[in-house]
Write a structure and sequence with these properties.
Layout (H helix, E strand, L loop, with lengths): L2 H14 L2 H5 L6 E5 L5 E4 H12 L4 E12 L3 E12 L7 E14 L2 E12 L8
Parallel strand pairs: 1-6
Antiparallel strand pairs: 1-2, 3-4, 4-5, 5-6
Protein name: SnoaL-like domain-containing protein
Pfam family, one: SnoaL_3
Organism: Tautonia plasticadhaerens
Length: about 130
């Protein structure tokens, strides 16, 4: 698969809660994830556990929009705008937005995601801001 195909698989796996497809885009043991709340994760096992927990909730939907894509021989970088809507049946509707930066490296004949950083955005309150 190409970098672009792997990126599309990774994003589709997130949107469709497909843990197996997500795992297929990961390295064997280590990666870096910096979550929107500033938590640092280094192990693939922890990354998978966190996504398994997130995927178990049926109340959210995720929209993605590719903002930037850079590809070299063995390195690919994508910046993706995210909109996540959570509408739990017994709670208030929550909409969050942010940017997801993903870095992939070519390992032998496949691309793997080794860095995932989510930066939340907040609505601007100052029009000049």
């Amino acid at each position: 698969m190409t970098f672009r195909e792997t990126l599309e698989q990774h994003l589709r796996a997130l949107k469709e809660r497909d843990l197996d497809a997500l795992i297929a885009t990961l390295p064997d043991d280590e990666l870096t994830q910096i979550s929107a709340d500033g938590r640092l994760v280094r192990s693939v096992d922890e990354f998978v556990r966190r996504h398994r927990d997130w995927f178990s909730s049926p109340s959210w939907t995720l929209e993605t929009r590719l903002e930037e894509l850079t590809e070299a021989d063995a390195l690919g970088l994508a910046v993706v705008h995210l909109t996540c809507r959570d509408e739990p049946p017994d709670g208030d509707r929550v909409v969050t937005q942010g940017f997801l930066t993903l870095a992939f490296a070519r390992q032998d004949d496949r691309w793997v995601m080794f860095h995932d950083q989510t930066t939340p955005t907040r609505p601007r309150t100052d029009p000049a801001g």
